[in-house]
Design a protein that fits this description.
By secondary structure, the chain is α+β, with helices and mostly antiparallel strands. The protein has 9 helices and 12 strands. The longest helix is centred in the last third of the chain and has 20 residues.
């Protein structure tokens, strides 16, 4: 499934340690994503490797992603690409950071693809995540990123407190310049009364954390595999909510998930609050195109 990555100080050393004497015979730029450059790297031994690259100073971004992939893989519940290496290379000029992953070659979807994915995701959410937090707390063993935004994973005993103080509040602060005084009052009211709208789960679940449809890929076994996590331990509804944004997944996925893990009444409304975090982040990253849904969701709870 995967393992913790080793940090390297050059791309050549990483390939040599993984594969022995080998050379790069081709590198094709791949489309998709707006944060990193992605490549299919072809090696002289016939291996294909998926490589992400970013600025030299952004090495922690890949270290966090490698840690998240390793955390998900450790559950043994769902397909995760193997983490091969992460590190930096002085390169030319300013250098770069990199992450090397198993290259996934899809084999066609199995029958019941979405139902199988739902069952495996439910198993992930039931898996023990005590390795990543202490004493049943919510958060994670390290801070990471949601998109290009730093994500604070300070651990809290209360799920609602964690989501308010380490998810919504930092994004609201960053977006304050978009809000007039009336909407700032609405947002303050929402944060102050969040415990009236969210519920505490029975236990923390290890979350993918950025589970939109683009981060769900068909894998070599014909089942759904997960990429690009923003992991932490929280309420399983967070991942389900995110699947409804930016493309969505079929209804049979939700039916199969609920058969494995029944959801508390009112979950559909709570999905809006969990997605408010993602929409605020998009507002802060990409601008005013996301202001209207942020305002609509907020006012639906406080008006």
């Amino acid at each position: 499934m995967g393992k913790q990555s080793v940090q390297y100080t050059s791309l050549a050393k990483a390939f040599a340690d993984i594969y022995g004497p080998v050379s790069i015979i081709g590198a094709s730029r791949l489309t998709g994503g707006d944060i990193n450059k992605a490549y299919l790297v072809q090696l002289s031994n016939g291996s294909n490797v998926f490589m992400k690259a970013n600025a030299f100073e952004n090495a922690d971004f890949f270290a966090a992603e490698a840690a998240g992939l390793a955390s998900l893989a450790s559950s043994g519940t769902i397909g995760i690409p193997k983490v091969l290496a992460a590190g930096t290379d002085p390169g030319e000029e300013a250098g770069y950071s990199f992450l090397l992953l198993e290259y996934l070659t899809p084999s066609g979807k199995i029958p019941g693809y979405w139902q199988t994915f739902a069952r495996e995701l439910a198993a992930l959410h039931r898996a023990d995540c005590s390795s990543f937090t202490h004493g049943g707390r919510y958060g994670y063993s390290r801070d990471n990123y949601i998109g290009a935004t730093p994500q604070d994973n300070t651990q809290e005993q209360s799920w609602i407190a964690f989501f308010r103080d380490h998810r919504l509040f930092p994004q609201v602060q960053k977006a304050a310049h978009y809000f007039d005084d009336a909407f700032k009052a609405d947002m303050t009211k929402l944060l102050d009364h969040l415990d009236e709208f969210l519920i505490e789960p029975e236990h923390p679940s290890l979350l993918h954390g950025d589970l939109w449809s683009g981060n769900i890929l068909g894998g070599p076994d014909g089942k759904a595999w997960l990429i690009d996590p923003a992991c932490y331990c929280g309420h399983c509804e967070v991942d389900l909510a995110m699947t409804r944004l930016f493309g969505g997944v079929p209804e049979e996925f939700y039916e199969a998930y609920r058969e494995c893990t029944p959801l508390e009444p009112g979950y559909a409304k709570r999905f809006d609050l969990y997605n408010l975090y993602q929409l605020l982040n998009h507002l802060n990253l990409f601008g005013t195109g996301y202001l209207t849904p942020v305002m609509e969701i907020t006012r639906s709870f406080v008006s």
